[in-house]
Specification:
Layout (H helix, E strand, L loop, with lengths): L8 H7 L1 H10 L2 H18 L2 H4 L1 H5 L6 H10 L4 H8 E3 L5 E3 L21 H5 L7 H4 L1 H8 L3 H13 L2
Helix pairs in contact: 2-10, 3-11, 6-7
C-alpha cells in the first residue's frame, strides 16, 4: 500500500475532488464503513490537530441548544449573553461563530473549552462515521482544510475497487 504524502496536500485534495465525489456517491457504503475505523485511527497517528487547527482557524461548528446551554454554564454566562457575544444565525438557521478564528482557540492551538466544546467539534472531521458519505459536500469541503480527511479519502481510494 502506497504511503500518503502530506506535501502540498491541499492542492492534491482539490485536484482529487472529482474522484473523491465519485467515491462518496458510488462507493460501496458497507465497504467504506468497514474501513473507516482503522483509517480514522491511522489518520490521527499521522496528523496532529494541535499543529494544524485549520478547522478552528477558518470555519465554525454549529452550536446546538445543548451546546449553548453547556458552554454558557461553563463560562458562567447567561445563554442569551453567550449567543449575543459569540454566535449568529447562518443562512440555514444554525447558530455559528460570529468570527474566525474561533474565540476559544488558544495560542498553542488548544481549545480553551475543550471538555465542553460543541458536539460538531467532538465529532469532527467525521472520518469514523457515515457522515463521510451521507453529507458529501461537507466531506469534500473538509478535505481541503483537514489533512485527516484528505488522508482517509486517499486511503479509501487505494483500498476500494
Amino acid at each position: 500500500m502506497e504511503e500518503i504524502s502530506f506535501d502540498n496536500w491541499q492542492k492534491k485534495s482539490a485536484d482529487h475532488r472529482k474522484s473523491y465525489q465519485r467515491l462518496l456517491q458510488k462507493g460501496n457504503r458497507n465497504d467504506i464503513l468497514r474501513l473507516l475505523p482503522d483509517l480514522h485511527e491511522a489518520a490521527f497517528e499521522k496528523v496532529s490537530c494541535l499543529s494544524c487547527a485549520g478547522c478552528c482557524k477558518n470555519y465554525s461548528p454549529r452550536f446546538k441548544t445543548p451546546d449553548i446551554k453547556r458552554i454558557s454554564k461553563y463560562l458562567r454566562m447567561k445563554e442569551g449573553a453567550f449567543i449575543d457575544e459569540y454566535l449568529m444565525l447562518d443562512t440555514e438557521g444554525d447558530y455559528v461563530l460570529r468570527s474566525t478564528p474561533c474565540p476559544f482557540l488558544g495560542e498553542n492551538n488548544a481549545c480553551n473549552i475543550y471538555e465542553e466544546r460543541p458536539s460538531d467539534c467532538r465529532r469532527f472531521p467525521y472520518t469514523d462515521e457515515d457522515v463521510l458519505f451521507k453529507r458529501p459536500a461537507i466531506t469534500l469541503k473538509n478535505s481541503e482544510f483537514c489533512p485527516a480527511v484528505y488522508f482517509v479519502l486517499e486511503k479509501l481510494q487505494q483500498q476500494l475497487p
